[in-house]
Amino acid sequence: MAEIQIPDELRYSSDDEWVRVEAGRVIVGITDYAQQQLGDIVFVELPGAGASFKKGEAFGVVESVKAVSDLCAPIGGKVIEVNDALTDRPEAVNEACYADGWMVAFSPSDPEEIDSLLDSEAYRKHVEARSD
Amino acid sequence: MTDLKRTPLHGAHERLGARLVEFAGYSMPVQYRSVLEEHRAVREGAGLFDVSHMGQIYLEGTGAIASTERLLSRPVASLKPGRVRYGLLCNQEGGIVDDVTFYRTGDDAIFLCVNAANVEKDYRWGVRFALDDTVIRNRSDETGLLALQGPASPEILAHVSSPTVKELERYAFTQIEVAGCDALVSRTGYTGSDGYEIYLAATETERVFEALLAEGKPLGLIPAGLGARDTLRLEAAMPLYGHELDDTTSPFEAGLGKFVKLDRGGFIGAEAIARREAEGRPRQLVGFELSERGIARAGYAVAVHGETVGVVTSGGPSPTLGKSIGLGYVPPRLAEPGTLLDIVIRGRAVSGRVVETPFVKASG
């Protein structure tokens, strides 16, 4: 397996989603570890803007050739933007999971939930614990 | 995964960075780098699969051919040495014990290549129903099996064996050296593309695997895993035991009627198959494609006007067609190509239609 990229400036959930806080919005995607585990991603199902989710609730689905995997909301909030480009180009999640492969942007219901997420160091330990 | 059986290539898979998963009690590579890349390599160049998990059951002795005639859905006596056929082991209820290829290696010798999950079951089945003067041996553990598949396969194999392999006919086999090792090479496969299956001593399998990869690389050969094997066989609409076939499926329901020769009679299950066929099929295997986005998966319901009418047995993306395809059982009245039906994906009806199979007609 290729080396796993875990950018320092992001926060992470134990379900392998990343979070970027940007001007009050919380952008969410899946991590490099998650996309490598899934393999070639062929389908991404995302909610419509306006939908609300609790922390930990499934907000979408990502499918590789062999696997179906739920996307779990790393924080609670309302979806304010959706990366519709993934409908036609799900492979963007494999190619650039921290950039073009982003999934949705949330307006957080409780910004303090962001503080409870893992930092890059803690997430790396979480990944390594499962790779042994 | 410490309790899993390993093929002779386990170390090679680890060195190549394969992702290993459990399949039929074995630790097997599902992919090396990318299922889609490995799929495309087989359709356009070549892929090399480790299928050493599959079983080889030998029947030898003066009763061997008569015994296999009794066990198999297709004639055996008329099969010439050096030829292979695909056929079915059926039970007394007309269900399918296994789907196999059988190789006539001599006047009184034949072997069956069987599904990994069914090796013990098939062996016991053979022992139970074989006639006198038949010796049945399970040589699965001492045998390695490579599948070299894709349009570049003849050229690649010629490099490490003899140019004569290019002339080998489809469903024929020959005993020949490959990379200096004794091998049985057949022009067969489970991908819908041209290619070979190469039977080897387990102890020599890694040497041949490495030699093929090295020689084949300039011609586009890469190692390929079970993930690509599954998407390839699905495009070719080849059934997978445990998905399309099981102990209750009649061959006709599964669309395998052409591999059953009922009029010769005498084989186990023949009467039940004929009776079930006369009574009418309750279900029929069909190929379908989705007209909307989504992936059909095994176990999803097939529905028409909100009513469940069947079930998906295999499904996934077709990398060659860029569409979502699948196989499933439906009532015969819904089996005509063009019939509209829905696949229920996470509670939502996604529209699709029955299409002709194979989905992809690859060359060779």
**First-residue to last-residue Cα separation of chain A:** 13 Å
- What multimeric state do the chains show? heterodimer
Helix percent of chain B reads 10-25%
Give the percentage of residues in beta strands of chain A: 25-35%
Order of helices and strands of chain B: EHEEHEEHEEEHEEHEEEHEHHEEEEEE
Molecular structure report:
The complex is a heterodimer of chains A (132) and B (364). Chain A contains five helices and nine strands, in the order βββαβββββααβαα. Chain A is α+β, with helices and mostly antiparallel strands and 132 residues long. Chain A has one domain (11-113): RNA polymerase II/Efflux pump adaptor protein, barrel-sandwich hybrid domain (OB fold (Dihydrolipoamide Acetyltransferase, E2P)), CATH 2.40.50.100. The radius of gyration of chain A is 14 Å and the shape is globular. The relative contact order of chain A is 0.24. The mean pLDDT of chain A is 95. Helices cover 21% and strands 35% of the residues of chain B. Chain B has 364 residues and is of the alpha+beta class. Among the domains of chain B are: 5-49 and 141-235, 2-Layer Sandwich (Gyrase A, domain 2), CATH 3.30.1360; 282-364, Elongation Factor Tu (Ef-tu), domain 3 (Beta Barrel). In chain B, the strands form four sheets. Chain B has a six-stranded mixed β-sheet, with helices on both faces.
